[in-house]
Amino acid sequence: MEKRALLAFALSLAVLFLWEIFLSPDASRKGKQASAPQTATQAQPESPAAPTASFSKSESQPSVDLKSVPEQHAHPIPAAAKTWVVDTPLYTAKISSAGGRIESFTLKKHRQTVDPASPLMDLIPSKGTGYFPLAVDLLQHRDWPLATMPYNGEAPTEIRLAPGDGEKTLALSAEVPGAVRVRKTLRFSPETYAVGVEIAVENLSEAPLTDQLGISSYAMPFDGVESSYNMSHVTVFKNGSLEKFEQKALKKETPILKPPMHWIGFENNYFIQAMLPGVQERFQVAPRLLDPDSGLLQLVYLTDPFTVAPGAAMTVSNTYYWGPKELEALKRADARLERALDFGWFSFLAKPLLIFLRWLYNYAHNYGVAIIVLTVLIKILFWPLTHKSYKSMQVMKKIQPKMAQIREKYKDDREKLNQELMMLYRTYKVNPLGGCLPMVLQIPVFFALYRMLYGAIELRHQPFWLWINDLTAPDRLFIGFDVPYLGGIPVLTLLMGASMFVQQKMTPSAGDPRQEKMMLMMPVIFTVFFVNFPSGLVLYWFVNNVLSIVQQYWINRYA
Q1: For residue 238, what is the enclosing H or E element?
Q2: Percent of the chain whose predicted confidence (pLDDT) is above 70
Q3: Which among 27, 216, 262, 274 is least buried, having the fewest CB atoms inside 10 angstroms?
Q4: Judging by beta carbons within 10 Å of its beta carbon (0-12, 13-18, 19+), is residue 245 exposed, middle or buried?
Q5: In Å, what is the CA distance from 358 to each residue of 208, 256, 271, 330?
Q6: Average pLDDT over residues 241-259
Q7: Do 321 and 407 share a domain, yes or no?
Q8: Is 197 left (phi over 0), alpha (psi -120 to 50) or beta?
Q9: What is the pTM of this model?
Q10: Which domain holds residue 535?
Q11: Number of domains within the chain
């Protein structure tokens, strides 16, 4: 019976692994996508120097016609185009006069690959295709090339912000003579990756201007090549919950997302481009997949129709975040953006574990060592539970012959059989589920660690020892030639599987040879599961197995 319980527990773990990897994102997306489109509207405060703009009532407006929103903003930037460079302790941003768009946003603390000489991480990966964020369009006047025309400004071409400096602004403007002037004001701070963006549309004509303002951002997978363990997707945080839209969903249809929403962004495990609306009305957002092969995505922020009187202006104020998914950095930008760091159902455990892991790193100076220390501490915390489990399994092994006799004697009387078995359990003071339940109690901690160790940017490109130079990548020892399907030898994963096999051999058996063979297959199954898992997670599981072997040896010898 004990072995059957353990088998059910192990198989449950396997099912949960498969669910977490293959089904959870789709299930979350499909369950919520149907309710994503809601009511729309967008409104913005007036320009301080101009009368307000009037908006049409959102209730009377049909859903946005995406065909009216331009896709093509990929005009090459002229070589003579002026560029403004904003340098802060966290990033370097380049803003081009061609459309007043963000040309690049490179993070100073993160590189593209584990190679220390690799280029810095640029969170505008779409620049290679010629698509840049903050492209502006007036939908009723598509002949005005506001998205790509030259913008001018009086700010110096180099703006440097040192720690402790206040906010600095970059003001740019472009106009269609006698018709409209567009003013872009970008606000930068040395303390955060967030950039405040204000876009004002001023009516220069003598007649009212009726239009809709579209602001397009563009995104692509940050690392170029997508991984099944680090997929990019669109995420919306609204009504206190997250809604995720993966590429295969966006291929089928483009959702029209309407307020209220706290933020919408394009993200993977480690980085995010997010837009935080300045107000919660009179706008809608559409994430439109332009190129499924490259993953090029257009994120369109579209106002409700508005009318601006002659000499008046309409202003849109939003905040944009281009940066890592670090807890403190997200909080500093906006407290609600913290939810972008999502570890699933067990976030309430994973986030404290991440904070504690970072604290350990301050002393260990190696995240691999910090993971080992964390594993030891968790093992100590659960020592009484696992000790009770192992003791129960030992007693169950001792009474297996008596249980077999009772089953044989009362095989035709199930009620009497159960009575005799319960009496046997009371005599030896053992619970038939005593070996399984303590392990089940550890499942939330395991899954919290599982999600945290493969999703924490703190571990990205962090080395451990010898061939393990990135704790978020699968462990591979390269030996001069490619191993089929793997590239290199997953040494740590094989050691994990071997330790699990030793642990299984040391675990008291139920005496059933068939069950023993089935249980000995579990190390093989888990090794296959773990072969492409981040090495940080494999390290945790390997150390946990070794500690379990030590504990089982101590119980077998001295208990």
Answers
A1: strand 233-238
A2: 78
A3: 27
A4: buried
A5: 57, 39, 18, 16
A6: 89
A7: no
A8: beta
A9: 0.80
A10: 349-382+442-558
A11: 3
